[in-house]
Structures are given as C-alpha cells and as structure tokens.
Amino acid sequence: MRRREFITLIGSAAVLPRAARGQKSAMPVIGFLSSRTSEQAGYVVAAFRKGLEEAGYVEGKSVTIEFRFADGLNDRLPELAADLVRRQVAVIVAGGTSGPAKQATATIPIVFTTGNDPVEAGLVKRVNQPEGNITGATFFSGALIGKQLEYCARSLRIPGTSDC
C-alpha cells in the first residue's frame, strides 16, 4: 500500500466513527464587530466574505460568522464584544472597534484594521511585534509625512535639502 493511500485510509477511519454517529464536526465561528449599521458596513462585509471565500472558507459551509453592529451607538460596543466572547467565537474581527474587543477578552484572537496609530490607541505596544491576542493592520500614515516631504524636496531639487 502506498503512503498516500495509507494516510487517506487512516484519516477516513478516524472520521468514520463520528460520521456514523451522525455528529457534525464543529464549524469555526468568526465574530465580526462593527460600530456601523449593517447597511453602512455592507461593502466591508461583502469584501470580508469574498476574502474568506478566496481563502477557502465559505459562510454556512466551512465557517459561521456572528455579526454584531452597534448602529452608530459606540456605547453599545463593549456589550456587543462581550456577547461575542460569551459565544466563544474563534476570532473577533474588529475594524475601528478594537478597543472594546480588547477590553472584552485577553484570550480570543482579535484582528483589527485602523486608520489611527495602534500604539497611541493602546491596541499594541509595538507595531512590528504585536503581543498577546491582538494583531492587525494600520493605514496610519502620519509617520510618513516627513519622508514624503523629503522625497518631494529631493525630486524637485530644492536647494538646501538633504540627500539622506
């Protein structure tokens, strides 16, 4: 028997008893936290679903998504984040709502996107090495302004500018 066939046989044998009992394997649950209304977040949700599908996760087939929308009422975010924690989701996706998610759990992974400085916002201690259960991406470009001006000055060959 070839190695690949053997591994397939062993894998099938492990799955067969569960299938025979009629038990369904647990599907991972993603928590999606937003300060917006569901209508306002429609384009973000569509892109999120598309990205998941491209990665092989299809909502309802291989993953479940629990959506929580604060409908513009930011004071609702802590309770919505706590609800996702009680639901024991596998991960929380929190765009600009990462603070309440971080306050709600220190164990469930949180993925954020933000247009602010995540260090100043208290999300992470360092951008290059996030710690704990939170990571993400920032679109904060404030730190780049100096370099952009320097590049512009060199491109225009303004006298007296440095050639770093």
Task: Describe the overall structure.
The chain is 37% helix and 16% strand. The chain is built from five helices and five strands, in the order H-E-H-E-H-E-H-E-E-H. It has a five-stranded parallel beta sheet with strand order 2-1-3-4-5, covered by helices on one side. The protein is elongated and about 65 Å long.
Secondary-structure arrangement, i.e. CATH architecture: 3-Layer(aba) Sandwich
Q: What structural class do helix, strand and pairing data support?
A: alpha/beta
Q: Largest sheet, if any?
A: 5 strands, parallel
Low-confidence spans: 1-23
Q: What is the CATH class designation?
A: Alpha Beta
Which range best describes the helical content: under 10%, 10-25%, 25-40%, 40-55%, 55-70% or over 70%?
25-40%
CATH fold descriptor = Rossmann fold
Order of helices and strands: HEHEHEHEEH
| Residue-averaged pLDDT | 80
- The dominant shape is elongated
Tell me the Rg in angstroms: 22 Å
Features:
disordered N terminus; 5 helices; alpha/beta; five-stranded parallel β-sheet
Task: Put the structure in a nutshell.
With 164 residues, this protein is α/β, with parallel strands linked by helices. It has five helices and five strands, in the order αβαβαβαββα.
